[in-house]
Write a structure and sequence with these properties.
Number of strands: 6
CATH topology: Thiol Ester Dehydrase, Chain A
Number of domains: 1
Helix content: 25-40%
Strand order of the largest sheet: 1-2-4-5-6-3
Order of helices and strands: HHEEHEEHEE
Number of helices: 4
CATH class: Alpha Beta
Largest sheet: 6 strands, antiparallel
Shape: globular
Strand content: 25-35%
Distance between the termini: 24 Å
Structural class: alpha+beta
CATH architecture: Roll
């Protein structure tokens, strides 16, 4: 079964309801990149009339995590995945539609291959950049993912 934006958005409705209710949606995905967007609305705003940082974090994490899920599924092995560390920088007020793009898919394949070969956990950092409709960066998130073959 191929991972598609439609399937991922249905998955989030049932397994990640807070992200789904806040409007986080996968727009495109391939082996090297993933695009997720979310629109500033009443349900996901902070008291300063911009998007709450945690909603941005959900969208940014999803842009990295769904690619990890895809590579794990492709491997055919039982592999656990977990965010070990993350950090973020906020550079502009997030209003309107914010699009998070991660282009670090190439990092996943090697880590999954290595954990299968060695049985040891592997870590790698992935970056997701959030931009508004004018193409201006509003936030940047970094996630340290860990993958390990389950026993």
């Amino acid at each position: 079964m191929k991972i598609t934006p439609r399937k991922l958005n249905i998955f989030s409705m049932f397994k990640l309801p807070s992200a789904w209710l806040c409007g986080v949606r996968v727009k495109s995905i391939n082996e090297s990149s993933c695009v997720v967007s979310v629109k500033h609305r009443w349900i996901n705003q902070n008291p300063f009339n911009s998007m709450f940082w945690a909603v941005q974090g959900m969208a940014a994490e999803m842009s990295t995590g769904v690619m990890v899920m895809g590579y794990i599924r492709e491997s055919g092995k039982k592999i656990s995945m977990l965010v070990a560390t993350n950090n973020a920088v906020f550079t502009k007020k997030a209003t309107g539609r914010i699009t998070f793009t991660c282009s670090d898919g190439h990092l996943i394949k090697e880590a999954v291959k290595k954990t299968i070969e060695t049985g040891e956990g592997q870590t790698f950092w992935m970056k997701s950049i959030g931009t508004n409709t004018d193409g201006v960066e509003v936030s940047s998130f970094n996630f340290e993912w860990t993958v390990r073959v389950k026993n």
